[in-house]
UniProtKB/TrEMBL annotation:
It comes from Chitinophaga eiseniae. This is RagB/SusD family nutrient uptake outer membrane protein. InterPro entries: SusD-like_N, SusD_RagB_dom, TPR-like_helical_dom_sf. CDD domains: SusD. Belongs to the SusD family. Keywords: Cell outer membrane, Membrane, Signal. The lineage of its organism: Bacteria, Pseudomonadati, Bacteroidota, Chitinophagia, Chitinophagales. It comes from the Bacteria. Gene3D superfamilies: 1.25.40.390, 1.25.40.900, 2.20.20.130. Residues 67-221 form the SusD-like N-terminal domain. The keyword ATP-binding does not apply. Pfam families: SusD-like_3, SusD_RagB.
Length: 485
């Protein structure tokens, strides 16, 4: 039974409460058969699958492995944390964070698979809803994994290996890697099915019809299916279920619980009892006045140069300069190993707890920018610029800070305008590096940090993806490793 560790289902970590609350403690005493054969326990089983997404091994690595390879952040020194290798592109075959997200991700996938195998579609609206939620969980995990372990869809998806597509629980299975195209095909199928089964009665801590449509919009954008991306993004925007927070409220967006935010479409909900303290996402980005957090990864000079073009942009509040006093008593910007200290605040101070946050996966602003990018690629420049300006106006920008189709402020194309607006609005939310590579653009770093400067990582480089964990290849000889170079 050596394969149990790879694809072990989440059902053994399930909460046996009668509601779908993520706040319930997990209970592992009942065998799977007692759960699967009793539909009164299916809501708790579904809650258990959400709880697996919330586990540090998934959430922390999803947000760090998706952000640290970008040019928006600067690592200020060597660290024993495997995030070092994600940042520097010095990937290892036995890298700890890749093994953690792989195993926890497939636990969630197979937790969903076990329920999907027994829940009868059409029996009731409540069961249909749970089927849709588990399809969303399965799609979200497959998407998160294929982004990190498979090459961008724009690069030969028919032949490039992605990850194993797992739709049935089989403890003895030794799955091979499906192609990138096959993985995306399953993600789309799951999300489309989910939209047909779910409504929007859940809070944004859980999957909903709109959340599935929002993720479909992102997936289609990654696939280069711009018309479909535009249609799904537009459906979410015009649904009336969400609204952009006001300019005055934007700086405090991430200090509130996600369920108190009408812009958030889906987030991984954390309460005080879920606070990871030193193991939290925000602990690497921020150190509180009381000394909680490492505060060793900062906003990059490249990102700050773009942000500081408009000091009136309220998104400046998502970073915080750290000052010290020099030998002459002057206030100066603090540094660590020569890297200017600019804390990143999107994962800190929820409910005034320094390391607590409910990481946002999908929000309405992204839908506007998906629609903008899709329209730019379809030649609908006026519509693309209009959506960019909606986001800029919400950030407090007016007048000459706004674009027109005939005044791109020095940018070469409308697509360039959109991609920089995505960089500003969605910074540190695991978009930037994927935006570059899927658009056949390089990561270029020429700013203080632990990397060798200047550093260019081409979108064609083998390093744009992480290695499949070597421990998994030893257990499953059908898994093929990503190229070393």
């Amino acid at each position: 039974m050596k394969h149990m560790s790879k694809y072990f289902a989440g059902l053994l970590l399930l909460s046996m409460a009668t509601s779908c609350s993520l706040k319930k403690d997990p209970y592992s005493a009942l065998p799977d058969s007692n759960i699967l054969n009793d539909e009164t326990k299916w809501p708790a089983a579904t809650a258990g699958n959400y709880a697996l997404l919330k586990e540090e091994n998934f959430t922390r690595n999803y947000f760090q492995m998706g952000e640290f390879p970008s040019d928006d952040v600067a690592l200020s020194g060597a660290t024993t944390d495997p995030l070092f290798y994600s940042y520097t592109y010095g990937h290892l075959t036995n890298q700890g964070n890749t093994l953690q997200i792989w195993r926890m991700g497939y636990k969630a996938v197979n937790g969903a698979n076990k329920l999907l195998a027994v829940m009868p579609e059409g029996k009731s609206a409540a069961i249909n809803e749970m089927i849709g939620e588990n399809l969303f969980i399965r799609a979200f995990v497959h998407f998160g994994l294929v982004r990190s372990f498979g090459r961008p869809y724009t690069q030969s998806p028919e032949t490039n290996p992605g990850i194993p597509v797992i739709t049935k629980f089989d403890i003895n299975a030794l799955p091979a890697r499906n192609t990138v195209k096959e993985v995306y095909g399953q993600i789309v199928a799951d999300l489309k099915k989910g939209t047909s089964l779910m409504d929007n009665s859940n809070t944004n801590s859980y999957a909903t019809k709109s959340a599935a449509m929002a993720l479909l919009a992102r997936v289609y954008l990654y696939m280069g299916k711009n018309d479909s991306a535009r249609i799904y993004a537009d459906s979410v925007i015009t649904s009336g279920n969400y609204s952009l927070v006001s300019t005055s409220d934007l700086p405090g967006y991430y200090t509130k619980s996600n369920e108190n935010n009408k812009e958030t479409i889906f987030a991984i909900h954390h309460t005080l009892q879920d606070d990871r303290t030193w193991g939290s996402i925000g602990s690497m980005y921020y150190m509180s006045p009381g000394g909680m957090g490492y505060g060793e990864i900062y906003a990059s000079q490249s990102y700050l140069d773009l942000l500081h073009k408009h000091p009136e942009d309220v998104r400046n509040k998502f970073v915080q300069a750290v000052y010290t006093t020099d030998d002459n008593g002057n206030k100066v910007l603090a540094t660590r190993n020569g890297v200017p200290k600019w804390y990143i605040l999107k994962y800190s101070n929820q409910d005034n707890v320094p390391t607590l946050s409910s990481p946002v996966v999908l929000r309405l602003a992204e839908m506007y920018l998906i629609r903008a990018e899709a329209n730019a690629k379809l030649g609908n420049n006026t519509a693309a610029i209009a959506d960019v300006n909606i986001i800029r106006q919400r950030a407090g920008l007016i007048g000459t800070a706004l674009f027109t189709p005939t005044d791109l402020k020095g940018y070469a194309s409308v697509l360039d305008v959109v991609l920089d607006e995505r960089r500003l609005e969605l910074a540190f939310e695991t978009h930037r590096v994927f935006d570059l590579f899927r658009n056949n653009r390089n990561v270029y770093r020429n700013y203080p940090g632990v990397q060798t400067n200047p550093q260019t990582v081409s979108y064609t480089d083998a390093r744009v993806v992480h290695f499949i964990p070597q421990q998994e290849i030893l257990l499953d000889p059908n898994l093929v490793q990503n190229p070393i170079q």
